[in-house]
Amino acid sequence: MTLPSDKALVPFVSVDNMMRLIHHIGIEDMLRDLAAYIEDDFKRWEQFDKTPRVASHSDVGVIELMPTSDGEAYGFKYVNGHPKNTSEGLQTVTAFGLLADVYTGYPVLLTEMTILTALRTAATSAMVAKHLAPKGADTMAMIGNGAQSEFQSLAMKAICGLKSVRLYDKDPAATSKCAANLAGTGLKVVSCKTPEEAIEGAQILTTCTADKQYATILSDNMVGAGVHINAIGGDCPGKTELAKGILDRSEVFVEFPPQTRIEGEIQQMGEDFPVTEMWQVITGEKQGRTDARQITLFDSVGFAIEDFSALRYIRDRIKGTGFFFELDMLADPDDPRDLFGMVGRAKT
Ligand code: NAD
């Protein structure tokens, strides 16, 4: 990897510039591109350093670092999860991330990742649904209509050909917001009053709620045969969305088992509960959906490689554009041993 300039300035993508980049590329194209980058990295899964994310928990939320490297580039994301934040006018999830050159150790990109996380989470969900959802799936129940929900819906449209989304949130204002944002996108949007109504006729069930507890967003009797469940919101110890009985009846697919066993829906099950790693389905080593009546369940928690793919994508796409500033964040004296002299010369 080459540095963006010989001055060791680091490109920085602000929230404003990320939004400009999305409009420049087009959100559905960007979701498709991101899904392709993520799928490429899932195909070379074994090249990556992998570790469960490093989490610092408090009573009200969690702050996490998510690092990985493919040997050429190193990336990490800082991300929080604070379900109580929305009631204080703040985001549940905020993030920023960094990509560095493994050869020099120098950063080559710093970027906002609150919006990018919503995009990469949605792109991952849809990339996985493309492999696991039943043939012809065109209707999704979207339970939890917060910050992630429109991105989830649009990614399923762009990547899986979703035609209709059925919205439910315990807060009707969130459903109204989501429906208004999705108007004009080409999706048929149906606002529902109960989760039972939302799942009627849906082949893909997405749960994307935020609550720091063992919640039951889908109970066992709500889930019939032949659906794909995209479980997004259970992503922390003590924070799940699905009744245990659903897991017993499903074929469960995960990102990185050591992290998912701590954070995902399967934290409710024993250590040896069988799961399939999604990268193995993508490389063809393991089977995905094997019959139309099976329940497939993507127990998504969000893994560092997806952020790495997103960082790679942003690094590639900002080249030759004005969608970044250059940050002077690396002290880089002409004589590398004369850091002190450089500080001294700055006095004048
Ligand atoms: P958000 O706070 O913006 O929205 C959550 C919504 O869930 C709110 O509108 C809330 O009213 C609703 N909700 C809470 N309990 C509910 C219930 N019992 N029934 C119906 N609706 C309910 O949060 P967000 O940014 O959209 O994130 C949603 C969840 O997804 C969070 O838990 C977050 O940690 C998780 N997340 C996961 C990934 C991943 O990669 N798997 C990535 C990003 C976010």
Describe this structure in words.
By secondary structure, this protein is an alpha/beta fold. It folds into two domains: 9-115 and 305-331, 2-Layer Sandwich (ornithine cyclodeaminase, domain 1), CATH 3.30.1780.10; 122-303, NAD(P)-binding Rossmann-like Domain (Rossmann fold, 3-Layer(aba) Sandwich), CATH 3.40.50.720. It has eleven helices and 17 strands. It has helices at 15-25, 27-43, 114-132, 149-160, 172-182, 195-198, 244-249, 257-263, 278-282, 304-318, 339-345, and strands spanning 10-13, 54-57, 62-69, 73-81, 95-101, 107-112, 139-143, 164-168, 188-191, 204-207, 214-218, 228-231, 240-242, 250-254, 276-277, 295-299, 325-327. It is globular. The two termini are 35 Å apart. 45% of the residues are buried. Nicotinamide-adenine-dinucleotide (NAD) is lined by residues 81, 86, 92-93, 117, 121, 143-148, 169-171, 174, 208-211, 215, 217, 232-233, 235, 300-302.
Give me a quick take on this structure.
With 348 residues, the chain is of the alpha/beta class. The chain is globular and about 75 Å long.
Topology:
Blueprint: E1 10-13, H1 15-25, H2 27-43, E2 54-57, E3 62-69, E4 73-81, E5 95-101, E6 107-112, H3 114-132, E7 139-143, H4 149-160, E8 164-168, H5 172-182, E9 188-191, H6 195-198, E10 204-207, E11 214-218, E12 228-231, E13 240-242, H7 244-249, E14 250-254, H8 257-263, E15 276-277, H9 278-282, E16 295-299, H10 304-318, E17 325-327, H11 339-345
Parallel strand pairs: 1-6, 7-8, 7-10, 8-9, 10-12, 11-13, 12-16, 14-15, 14-16
Antiparallel strand pairs: 1-17, 2-3, 3-4, 4-5, 5-6
The protein binds nicotinamide-adenine-dinucleotide (NAD).
Nicotinamide-adenine-dinucleotide (NAD) binds at residues 81, 86, 92-93, 117, 121, 143-148, 169-171, 174, 208-211, 215, 217, 232-233, 235, 300-302.
